[in-house]
Amino acid sequence: MRIGEVAARAGVSVRALRYYEEQGLLAATRSPSGQRTYPSGAVERVRLIQQLYAAGLSSGRIRDLLPCIHTGVSTPESRALLATELARINEQIKGLVETRDRLESVIAVAERATAGRGQAAGSCHAGSCPASSSDVGTSR
């Protein structure tokens, strides 16, 4: 597969693919005319790389972990790296859930206040919300 096709199928830019190649995350062969050619599994690999980046892993960490992710074979060191990253991601998830819960509380308080005052929905703007910060967290 040529670089443009991989980029289109994976939903990334051609520049991103070149970067992944520079970082040792993705390998391409070269045609006689110098064009990059990727194996059939490149699209899935790029999607995995994107997921790992989105989870906050660095390119170096991704490079270290990709072999054991793809083969299912790992060393004690790679398992420790995976466990460390998993713990970090779980902490991120915990923080996101707490943030979501807090936002749900703010919305519930604001909706109760709006309904009680007969105000139109959506009249709460930054700095003018009827819910005070002391109301947050008490709506459960």
What are the defining features of this structure?
140 residues, elongated, 5 helices, mainly alpha, single chain, Multidrug-efflux Transporter Regulator, Chain: A, Domain 2, 2 strands
How are the SSEs ordered, and which strands pair?
Blueprint (H helix, E strand, L loop, with lengths): L2 H8 L3 H9 L6 E2 L5 E2 L4 H13 L4 H13 L4 H42 L23
Antiparallel strand pairs: 1-2
Helix pairs in contact: 1-3
Instruction: Output the radius of gyration.
Output: 23 Å
Helix proportion of residues, in percent? Answer: 55-70%
Could you please say which CATH topology of the largest domain applies here?
Answer: Multidrug-efflux Transporter Regulator, Chain: A, Domain 2
CATH class of the largest domain: Mainly Alpha
Distance N to C terminus: 54 Å
Described by strand count, sense and barrel closure, the largest sheet is: 2 strands, antiparallel
SSE order in H/E notation?
HHEEHHH
Number of strands: 2
Strand content: under 5%
Count every helix, treating DSSP H or I runs of 4 or more residues as helices. 5
Mean pLDDT comes to 86
Give the number of domains. 2
Strand order of the largest sheet: 1-2
Structural class: mainly alpha
- Described by the principal axes of the CA atoms, the overall outline is elongated
CATH architectural category of the largest domain: Orthogonal Bundle
Low-confidence stretches: 130-134
Protein name: MerR family transcriptional regulator
Pfam families: MerR_1 (PF13411)
Keywords: DNA-binding
